[in-house]
Amino acid sequence: MSRAARLLDLLQTLRERRRPVSAAALGEALGVSLRTVYRDIETLRGQGAAIEGEAGLGYVLKPGFTLPPLMFDDDELDALILGLRLVMRRGDGDLEAAAEGALAKIVAVLPEERERAAAASGLLAGPVCGEAAEAPHLGLIRRALQEETKLRLAYRDKKGAATDRVVWPIAVGFFEGYEMLAAWCETRRDFRHFRLDRIGAATALDQRIPKHRRLLLAEWRAREDLDG
Fold first, then answer.
1. Arithmetic mean of pLDDT over the chain
2. Which of 77, 107, 138, 177 is the most buried (most CB within 10 A)?
3. Any residues with CB less than 8 A from the CB of 36 and at least 6 apart, and which?
4. What is each CA distance from 188 to 71, 150, 159, 165, 184, in whole angstroms?
């Protein structure tokens, strides 16, 4: 393995860990000596990597530090391009613009030969068919998820019955032809799922949800047996 590849592997190993990791554990993971780990960490620090810690305490990559897109292999790059192109077809204007911007940034920093390969990628995303192409209320729901605030929904179920619900948004699932909001429903006092194309109106309420969304997400995943 070249030294450049080893340095990048060290960065990736640190990036995958949220807590400080010892030099011994890093050396074992990378198959190098303690001395090499210490030397490589100092090299990376000298090149601007935000690595905190010291010998005997462990090392951690400071939050916010990201690896350059040239780290992606061909399969990872294909996955990113296809995923972003799919997002650009979902009908949320802000999300489409963000995906387009992210794709442009990735392509801009690729080596020339890989930039050409990305531009000629054979993985294309077709248009979303039907009502889901409009992704109704997706932008408002995404903001409520980010800000952890309640939503009021005017909703019609599959039989056409109309109800008014106040919900605590948890997650949005993207499926073939439609999007689904998972939420805690104050009316039913339980987790419920709402198709976005059946939401007639959505209003963001100036009320924070009573429980952190990550805790609700964990409870919902356990209820749906999504971690098994």
1. 83
2. 138
3. 6, 27
4. 47, 15, 18, 9, 8
Instruction: Kindly provide the b/e burial profile for residues 188-198, where b requires at least 16 CB atoms within 10 angstroms of the residue's own CB.
Output: eeebbebbbbb
Q: Is 27 helix (H, G, I), strand (E, B) or coil?
A: helix
Q: Which 3 state secondary structure label does DSSP give 136?
A: coil
Neighbours of 220 (CB within 10 A): 18
pTM score: 0.61
Residue 80 to residue 135: CA distance in whole angstroms: 22
How confident is the model over 111-120, as a mean pLDDT? 69
Task: With both helix axes pointing from N to C terminus, report the angle between 138-147 and 93-108 in degrees, rounded to the nearest 10.
Answer: 70
Residue ranges of E strands in 66-176: 149-156, 162-175
Cα–Cα dist 182/173, whole Å: 8
Quickly state the pLDDT bin for 206 (edges 50, 70, 90): very high
- The structural architecture, per CATH, of the domain 3-61 is Orthogonal Bundle (1.10)
The three-state secondary structure class of 174 is strand
Question: Which CATH number is associated with domain 132-223?
Answer: 2.30.30
Lowest mean pLDDT among 94-98, 164-168, 180-184, 196-200: 94-98
